[in-house]
């Protein structure tokens, strides 16, 4: 497959350089070793590896999904044989540690560049890339919260691709409701813990890709606080390390079964048992676990990672939307079918379907969703860098607040509209798009996961309306409003299409501010949050309109196909999409009680 | 599986009897043998067979999809072994011919009842039921357009389940653009034709369910008119019949390959070769075909069937939406997770998720889509009966016009929003819904076919805006407007919620009428139809609001959970859905040129 069908290098270059001025980051100490050249080189490398090592087995890793096998009473997951070698090339190229500290072996690239690097793999083969993504998230969390010994023992092998990582949060009875987990960690005199419980939906929970798997596990220490305050974080390796750090005895973490998913099949998803007695490490019951951070701080540590994971989910959704768009555009340009409406001569040659207005509508919508989503994600990545490395504390704080506020939108909006892009990609292909002989049906199935994992759509909605827009006295929401307003001011100055779009965005933003205040006059949280999903979707569309206005301004000086394409997509977004916000905000302003007043027995 | 998770008997009873007064049809001569009792009995029978014979293998027929095998150089499709016996029970019960004339062995039930009967099977197992549906459509077409000999030879064995039927329209290079088919039918002196060409996307194109397969094939007779006027219809059996009507020599229709679909996997979908020389019937090249009707009338005959097929597609989409709704409702009532927003005590027991407002929102939306779609489809079924059996010619003509106008909406709206219902059904299930261990992911995959086959969403849009609303000087559109207005008048009289909804619907309808006229002031068809899909979606939502207002009025006198549920869903539709029509109509009124003015090279 051509890499031009995976992502657009021209668009990435535009977004990273022309719009976000990523090169400026290299003036900062952390990124001083880098330059535009090194940034572009690592992106080229990612594009090459994604195209050559990851894309080719994307369909096979879906069709031939991981299998469960039992050997001597112990369960094992068997992955597709092409997964391991592909991951090894990415690890060897240093891409797993692209953004990490040089001190632990990382390339210390800006986070925004790391997101762009990952996007190539997420578009080419999300099922295989997930093993790398989970491992990197795991390593990042250990670096932030683990002891120096834990970091030394586990992080370097992860970045080299020898160890892999998982995040073990959910349990069969506790998914969104983490307060209700029951996995317990019993302290032992030597400072270790013994873990007992079941963990559900664990991606990468078992395989033999490398030498070891590092599970980061949320559990409760008996006698700890109630609810989420009683949750601690533990490192539980599949194989214990001996005194020299070499892989030794098997720990009591075992594979109970696999979940068979609609999509994302290449990523093994498991039910794991901790301490069910399959093996008894050191002759004692329970899986050996090592406390990470302090008791009771497990959820906070996990959420440190979770915010970045949510942006990564949004990035994955955007990447799938993007590749689906490129593939359907390619199809539309080459598939002849029918004649223009009103053309009467049936013997005239057929035209490529991109000539039909309705097909262009579906392509423009995909372009608006995919490029808009990717731009939002990269903007958030830029905020991560700002939050960490901006020169003054006020700028760091402002970036932090803005990022916190945008995170539920960065997770949800690409997940919702990226899926919509993929359904349009299928539709452009007609019957062919519905078959597994083409790629787009897999993108659609894979993308359907994204509104569910790492906090469902509903969880993001409650987070945005219930927490983010009111935190710190509304400081994050204010920062967002000011940011949007500054763009609008520039647009009004620019005139033309930008000014028209700016005026519409100003009006929508003012209305959002008004409605946000109105909703928070409602005293009871259950009433206030009843239509949170409607709020999330309205706010999301307004944020994306702002992202499109930003892009419009960034091509202001250009007059070429690329710039005209950005203008067309921006116009599409402002004409077809932004106006849908009006009725949603009216519903919220009216304090609609339809959902609240519906009794479960009526349904 | 309980049949209460397939469809709701209470709702069917409400829609058919309380709302559509189907029993009144039994006063007409054609249905005089029937009564409420016989109608209810056949529906009970359908529910039983769907539950006991079809639902149990729905997942297996997806997981173990049809296989391609070659024996002595001839391709064969091998179906799941549970498909044949299930279809046989439906045929034995007489359900294939439920609505057909007693003369050909049918039960002569009203068409609206036939749709309700089929809905049970479409919800329980669409992959298996499709073989029956195609066979019935084929038999109906032959009864309407075939010669008496053709009917005698082929229809009774089809209704008995011994022969099956297909519709062969598309070719690899001609899908939506039927004018471009190249399959040719060469006349022979004995009045038969010899067929040469490839047909693509042929559902049920090969299998060994019975003794024979009756292909109805669109082809061109050399020297015929250009474009669609040169298309004729042929009957091409897989096995030729001997003089006594017994199955004899193999015809040259052979299976080239299977399409591997995302969903609807239980229905084999094929590429067929006609006359490629695999066999030479009677020692001569070409597949033997028999002209149905007159030369050049092929497309008209096929469209006779196609209109009913489009309503059947909408019915299938509604049925899948419905079963997904019932399953996610059942899950939401039994799955404990979390506590109400604002509840602070983490040791309080968890509540079933139906108690969370956001989950009720997703259930209400599904209810509004699924019950609304089913109601629309049954209304259309009632119009078919009216068109055929109403006492006076004016009523028949009016029903005909209304049905023609509603058909693109009846096909598209359930396909679009039924899919949306299914994505919400997955979302209610959380991670579980994304696994093949639960049913809803299959419903979602299956339902994704519906906006594609039997005329894509875009084709329906062009049909509605380009033909249906303007045909006969706008008579169909006027009939629709008058029908809606009459309901609004009743609603205004009824007062309360109905009057409020009625006022909103009156306003939306007036605006639709205005915008329809405005769009048609645009002289060039390409410009006029550029935003046809937006028009289809706006008109669809207005029609569904009317359907919900009708249901609201029909429960006016009741005060029970069922009636309160209908009220809640109607309120949901009017508060959350109908207002989205405003921006769509504004876009159309503005004659938006975004799509038209976007050059293919800009994308």
Report on this structure.
- 2 copies of one chain form a homodimer.
- Chain A is an alpha+beta fold.
- The first copy, chain A, has a domain of 148 residues.
- In chain A, 53% of the residues lie in helices and 12% in strands.
- In chain A, helix 2 packs antiparallel against helix 4.
- The two termini of chain A are 48 Å apart.
- The model of chain A has no long low-confidence stretch (mean pLDDT 96).
- At the A-B interface, helix 8, helix 9, helix 10, helix 11 and helix 12 of A face helix 8, helix 9, helix 10, helix 11 and helix 12 of B.
- Chains A, B: This is Acyl-CoA dehydrogenase.
- Chains A, B: InterPro entries: Acyl-CoA_dh-like_C_dom, Acyl-CoA_Oxase/DH_mid-dom_sf, AcylCo_DH-like_C, AcylCo_DH/oxidase_C, AcylCoA_DH/ox_N, AcylCoA_DH/ox_N_sf, AcylCoA_DH/oxidase_NM_dom_sf, Diverse_Acyl-CoA_DH.
SSE inventory with pairings:
Two copies of one chain form a homodimer.
Chain A: H1 9-19, H2 36-54, H3 58-63, E1 67-71, E2 74-78, H4 83-92, H5 111-124, H6 126-145, H7 148-159, E3 163-168, E4 184-187, E5 193-203, E6 212-220, E7 231-237, E8 239-241, E9 247-250, E10 253-258, E11 269-274, E12 287-292, H8 298-334, H9 357-389, H10 393-429, H11 440-447, H12 457-468, H13 471-494, H14 496-519, H15 525-528, H16 532-554, H17 561-577, H18 581-589
Helix pairs in contact in A: 2-4, 2-5, 4-6, 5-6, 5-8, 5-9, 6-7, 6-8, 8-9, 8-10, 8-11, 9-10, 9-16, 9-17, 10-11, 10-12, 10-13, 10-16, 12-16, 13-14, 13-16, 14-16, 14-18, 16-17, 16-18
Cofactor (chains A, B): FAD
Keywords (chains A, B): FAD, Flavoprotein
Organism (chains A, B): Pseudonocardia ailaonensis
């Amino acid at each position: 497959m051509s890499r031009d069908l995976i992502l657009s290098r021209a668009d990435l270059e535009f977004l990273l350089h022309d719009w976000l001025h990523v090169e400026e980051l290299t003036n900062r100490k952390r990124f001083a070793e880098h330059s535009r050249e090194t940034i572009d080189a690592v992106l080229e490398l990612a594009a090459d590896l994604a195209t050559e090592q990851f894309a080719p087995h994307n369909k096979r890793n879906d069709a031939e999904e991981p299998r469960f096998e039992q050997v001597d009473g112990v369960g094992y997951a068997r992955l597709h044989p092409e997964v391991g070698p592909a991951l090894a090339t990415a690890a060897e190229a240093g891409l797993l540690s692209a953004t990490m500290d040089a001190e632990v072996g990382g390339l210390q690239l800006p986070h925004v560049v790391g997101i762009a690097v990952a996007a190539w793999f997420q578009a080419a083969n999300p099922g295989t890339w997930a093993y790398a993504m989970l491992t990197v998230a795991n390593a990042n969390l250990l670096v932030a919260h683990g002891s120096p010994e834990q970091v030394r023992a586990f992080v370097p092998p992860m970045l080299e691709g020898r160890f892999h990582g998982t995040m073990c949060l959910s349990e069969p009875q506790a998914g969104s409701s983490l307060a209700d987990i029951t996995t317990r960690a019993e302290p032992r005199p030597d400072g270790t813990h013994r873990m007992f419980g079941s963990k559900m939906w664990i991606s990468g929970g078992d395989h033999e890709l490398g030498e070891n798997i590092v599970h980061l596990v949320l559990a409760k220490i008996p006698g700890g606080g109630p609810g989420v305050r009683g949750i601690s974080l533990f490192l539980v390796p599949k194989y214990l390390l001996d005194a020299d750090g070499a892989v030794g005895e098997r720990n009591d973490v075992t594979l109970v079964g696999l979940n068979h998913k609609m999509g994302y099949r290449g990523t093994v998803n498991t039910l794991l048992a901790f301490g069910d007695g399959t093996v008894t490490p050191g002759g004692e019951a329970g899986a050996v676990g090592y406390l990470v951070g302090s008791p009771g701080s497990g959820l906070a540590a996990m959420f440190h990672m979770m915010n970045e994971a949510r942006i990564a989910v949004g990035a994955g959704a955007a990447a799938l939307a993007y590749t689906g768009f490129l593939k359907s555009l390619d199809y539309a340009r080459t598939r002849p079918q029918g004649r223009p409406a009103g053309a009467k001569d049936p013997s005239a040659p057929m035209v490529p379907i991109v000539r039909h207005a309705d097909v262009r509508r579906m392509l423009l919508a995909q372009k608006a969703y995919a490029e808009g989503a990717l731009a939002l994600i990269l903007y958030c990545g830029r905020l991560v860098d700002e939050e960490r490395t901006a020169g003054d504390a006020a700028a760091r704080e402002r970036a932090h607040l803005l990022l916190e506020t945008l995170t539920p939108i960065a997770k949800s909006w690409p997940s919702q509209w990226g899926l919509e892009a993929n359904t349009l990609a299928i539709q452009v292909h007609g019957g062919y798009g519905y078959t597994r002989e083409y790629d787009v049906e897999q993108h659609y199935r894979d993308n359907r996961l994204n509104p569910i994992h790492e906090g469902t759509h509903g969880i993001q909605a409650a987070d945005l309306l219930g927490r983010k827009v009111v935190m710190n006295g509304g400081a994050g929401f204010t920062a967002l409003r000011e940011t949007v307003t500054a763009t609008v001011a520039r647009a009004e100055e620019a005139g033309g299409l930008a000014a028209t779009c700016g005026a519409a965005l100003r009006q929508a933003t003012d209305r959002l501010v008004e409605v946000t205040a109105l909703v928070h006059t409602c005293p009871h949280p259950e009433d206030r949050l009843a239509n949170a999903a409607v709020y999330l979707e309205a706010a999301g569309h307004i944020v994306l309109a702002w992202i499109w206005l930003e892009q419009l301004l960034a091509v202001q000086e250009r007059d070429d196909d690329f710039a005209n394409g950005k203008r067309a997509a921006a116009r599409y977004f402002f004409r077809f999409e932004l106006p849908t916000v009006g009725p949603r905000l009216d519903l919220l302003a009216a304090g609609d009680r339809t959902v609240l007043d519906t009794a479960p027995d009526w349904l």
